[in-house]
C-alpha cells in the first residue's frame, strides 16, 4: 500500500507508528533525527530517481507531488532528513500547488514504484498543506519560519486583524492618525477594503493619501510593528464603542422630522448662517427616498406625472414594498401596467444607476417643497377640525 512506499523513503517500519519514541517524547511532538542518524538509502536516491527525466524544476515539482501523495505524517518524516534549502524549495512547490490530476499522480507514483488510485482524481496541495507538513516535521515555530521563508506571501499581514472592520469603523479607528500612518494602512489592507476606506475621505485628503501611497518606498518593519500594536491597543480599549460614533447631521435630521415645520425652518435658517455646509448635509438627510411616504397622495400624483414610465420603473428597483405600493397607488391602472412592463424589461440594473435615479427624484421633491408646491407631513403633525 501507499504507506509501505512512504515508509521505504522515510526510513520507518510499521511498528514505528505504534511504539513510543525511546526518548519519551509526548504524543504529537515532532521526532527529530539524532545527529548520528543518516537518511535511509532509499531516500538518498529519491532526488536522483525523479531527476533522471526532466529538468531541475521538474525534479522538485515531482518530489513535492510525491510528498503530497503519501500524506502529511509520512511527508514530515522525510522532510526531517533534508537540508534546509531543499525543504524551503519543496515547501514553495507544495504551497503553489492547487491539485494534482489523477494522470500526473499515477505517473509520479509509478516512478516511486507505487500506483495509488484516488476517489476524486486529484490531491489537494496549497499553503495549508505545506504548513501542516512543516509544522509536523519541525514544530510550530520552525515549521512556520521555513514556510514564510519559502513562500513570503503566505505570512499573515501585520494588519490582517483590520479586515474584520468595515470601512466606516476603520475610518473611526484612524481618525486621530497622521496621513503617513493612514497611507500605510491603506496599502496594507486588501485592495477592496482600501478603496472603500479611501472613498470616505474628503477629496483633498484623498488626493494627499493617494500621493503618499504612490510615492511610498520600503517601510521599516519596526515601524509597521509599532503601528500595528497601537491600532490593536485602540481596538482593545474601545471595544465595540468604535462602531458608535454619531453622525450628527443625520441625527439632527431625524429629530427635525418630529417637530413642527416652523421650528424646523427656524433651526435650519440659523444653522445656514453658522455653517452652510452642515445645513446642507442636514437637509440632505431630511429628504430621503422614505420622504415619499410622507407626501400627500394628491401632490405625489402630480409629481409622478412629470416623470416618464421608464424613470419610475427604475426608481422602483430595490425599494421597500411600502414605497413601491405608495408610488403605484398614485398612478392610473393603465399606467401601472406600462410601468410594470418597463420594470420587467429593464431587468437587473447597476446599483449606481438606481441610486442616481433616486437622487434625482429626491432632489426634485426637495425643490418643490422649498417652492411650497408640495406638502410633506411631519410625523407628529396634529390636525384641527
What does this structure look like?
Residues 270-376 form the Flagellar motor switch protein FliG C-terminal domain. It comes from Spirochaeta africana (strain ATCC 700263 / DSM 8902 / Z-7692). Belongs to the FliG family. Its main location: other. InterPro entries: Flg_Motor_Flig, Flg_Motor_Flig_C, FliG_a-hlx, FliG_M, FliG_N. It is a single chain. By secondary structure, the chain is mainly alpha-helical. It has four domains: 2-154, no CATH class; 160-243, Flagellar motor switch protein FliG, alpha-alpha superhelical domain (Annexin V, domain 1); 246-286, Up-down Bundle (Single alpha-helices involved in coiled-coils or other helix-helix interfaces); 288-385, Flagellar motor switch protein FliG, alpha-alpha superhelical domain (Annexin V, domain 1), CATH 1.10.220. The protein contains 22 helices and two strands. It has helices spanning 2-10, 41-44, 46-51, 56-70, 72-79, 84-96, 102-111, 127-138, 140-150, 167-173, 179-188, 191-199, 203-215, 221-238, 248-256, 261-274, 276-286, 297-304, 309-316, 321-329, 333-346, 351-370; strands at 99-101, 122-124. It has a two-stranded antiparallel sheet. It is elongated and about 85 Å long. It starts with a helix and ends in a 15-residue tail after the last helix. The model is unreliable at 13-39, 114-122 and 240-246 (pLDDT under 50).
Amino acid at each position: 500500500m501507499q504507506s509501505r512506499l512512504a515508509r521505504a523513503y522515510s526510513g520507518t517500519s510499521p511498528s514505528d507508528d505504534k511504539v513510543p519514541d525511546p526518548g519519551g517524547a509526548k504524543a504529537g511532538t515532532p521526532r527529530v533525527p539524532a545527529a548520528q542518524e543518516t537518511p535511509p538509502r532509499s531516500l538518498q536516491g529519491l532526488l536522483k530517481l525523479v531527476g533522471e527525466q526532466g529538468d531541475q524544476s521538474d525534479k522538485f515539482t515531482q518530489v513535492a507531488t510525491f510528498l503530497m501523495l503519501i500524506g502529511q505524517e509520512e511527508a514530515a518524516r522525510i522532510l526531517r532528513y533534508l537540508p534546509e534549502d531543499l525543504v524551503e524549495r519543496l515547501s514553495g512547490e507544495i504551497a503553489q500547488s492547487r491539485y494534482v490530476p489523477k494522470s500526473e499522480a499515477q505517473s509520479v507514483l509509478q516512478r516511486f514504484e507505487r500506483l495509488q488510485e484516488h476517489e476524486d482524481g486529484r490531491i489537494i496541495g496549497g499553503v495549508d498543506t505545506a504548513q501542516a507538513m512543516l509544522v509536523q516535521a519541525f514544530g510550530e515555530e520552525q515549521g512556520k519560519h521555513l514556510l514564510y521563508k519559502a513562500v513570503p506571501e503566505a505570512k499573515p499581514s501585520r494588519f490582517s486583524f483590520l479586515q474584520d472592520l468595515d470601512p466606516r469603523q476603520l475610518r473611526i479607528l484612524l481618525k486621530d492618525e497622521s496621513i503617513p500612518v493612514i497611507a500605510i494602512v491603506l496599502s496594507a489592507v486588501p485592495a477592496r477594503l482600501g478603496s472603500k476606506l479611501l472613498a470616505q475621505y474628503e477629496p483633498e485628503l484623498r488626493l494627499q493619501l493617494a500621493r503618499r501611497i504612490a510615492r511610498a518606498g520600503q517601510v521599516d518593519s519596526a515601524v509597521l510593528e509599532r503601528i500595528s500594536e497601537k491600532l490593536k491597543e485602540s481596538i482593545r480599549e474601545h471595544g465595540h464603542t468604535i462602531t458608535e460614533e454619531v453622525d450628527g447631521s443625520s441625527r439632527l435630521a431625524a429629530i427635525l422630522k418630529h417637530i413642527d415645520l416652523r421650528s424646523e425652518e427656524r433651526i435650519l435658517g440659523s444653522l445656514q448662517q453658522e455653517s452652510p455646509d452642515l445645513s446642507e448635509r442636514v437637509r440632505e438627510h431630511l429628504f430621503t427616498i422614505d420622504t415619499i411616504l410622507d407626501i400627500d397622495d394628491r401632490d405625489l400624483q402630480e409629481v409622478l406625472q412629470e416623470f416618464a414610465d421608464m424613470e419610475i420603473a427604475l426608481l422602483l428597483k430595490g425599494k421597500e414594498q411600502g414605497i413601491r405600493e405608495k408610488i403605484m397607488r398614485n398612478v392610473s391602472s393603465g399606467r401601472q401596467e406600462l410601468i410594470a412592463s418597463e420594470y420587467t424589461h429593464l431587468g437587473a440594473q447597476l446599483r449606481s444607476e438606481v441610486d442616481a435615479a433616486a437622487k434625482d427624484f429626491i432632489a426634485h421633491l426637495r425643490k418643490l417643497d422649498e417652492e411650497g408646491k408640495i406638502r410633506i407631513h411631519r410625523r407628529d403633525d396634529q390636525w384641527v377640525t
